[in-house]
């Protein structure tokens, strides 16, 4: 399995995992492709295993494809799997304590303010509950911007931290809310021993790429999803 694929799967974990037919098959009630996708374990893995596993569970079959997995990518395409959401993995070092104003509220459990951003950004209750359950399985810090207009998470694993679930309320976008929150999350993680940080962002999300680039993140890998139908 690709090194970054394993890391991302560990920090955004499925509720159940099966390894069979050359795939690691994760399932989390169908919420988010990242937690409901197949990761390649054996280069010669049979695509039919992916199709059967997710079809049995009523979820559209999905596989992540990482660099070096071109042969499997071609087989997925032959079986009717289309490319969805090419994604970049961005990373930066955290050797020095990041500058931050400390205005964000960062807690070890989701607060009402953190949860409220789901509804304000059009996310349904079932998805919100499942995402909260996913993050509850790992060492997560929940950050909320000072005025409650943005939120994000930091998943700490040893000396590394994954930034995820970043969102800004529609009416507050373009005001620097995410920049302040991101800096506060990175400093919080540094204070708890993290010395590197990473995140995943859809390749075409230009505002997010500008935000993370200005915060010192640069590309280290990439993947795309292949979704059946």
Automatic annotation (TrEMBL):
Q: Which UniProt keywords apply?
A: Acyltransferase, Transferase
Family matches, as Gene3D superfamilies: 3.40.630.30
User: Where does the source fall among the domains of life?
Assistant: Bacteria
Where in the numbering of this chain does the N-acetyltransferase domain appear? 92-229
Q: What's the protein called, per UniProt?
A: GNAT family N-acetyltransferase
Native source organism of the sequence: Nocardiopsis codii
């Amino acid at each position: 399995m690709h090194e970054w694929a394993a890391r991302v799967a560990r920090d955004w974990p499925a509720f159940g995992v099966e390894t069979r037919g050359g795939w690691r098959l994760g399932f989390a009630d169908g919420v988010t492709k990242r937690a409901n996708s197949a990761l390649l374990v054996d280069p010669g893995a049979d695509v039919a295993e992916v199709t059967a596993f997710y079809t049995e569970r009523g979820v559209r079959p999905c596989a992540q494809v990482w660099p070096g997995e071109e042969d499997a990518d071609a087989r997925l395409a032959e079986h009717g799997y289309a490319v969805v959401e090419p994604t970049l993995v961005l990373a930066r070092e955290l050797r020095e304590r990041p500058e931050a104003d400390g205005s964000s509220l960062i807690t070890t459990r989701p607060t009402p303010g953190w949860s409220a951003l789901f509804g304000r950004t059009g996310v349904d209750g079932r998805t919100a509950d499942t995402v909260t359950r996913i993050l509850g399985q790992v060492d997560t810090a929940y950050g909320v911007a000072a005025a409650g207009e943005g939120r994000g998470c930091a998943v700490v694993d040893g000396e590394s931290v994954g930034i995820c679930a970043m969102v800004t309320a529609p009416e507050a976008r373009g005001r620097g809310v995410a920049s302040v929150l991101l800096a506060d999350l990175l400093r919080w993680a540094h204070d708890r021993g993290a010395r590197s940080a990473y995140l995943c962002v859809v390749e075409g999300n230009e505002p997010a790429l500008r935000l993370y680039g200005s915060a010192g993140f640069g590309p280290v890998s990439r993947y795309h999803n292949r979704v059946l139908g």
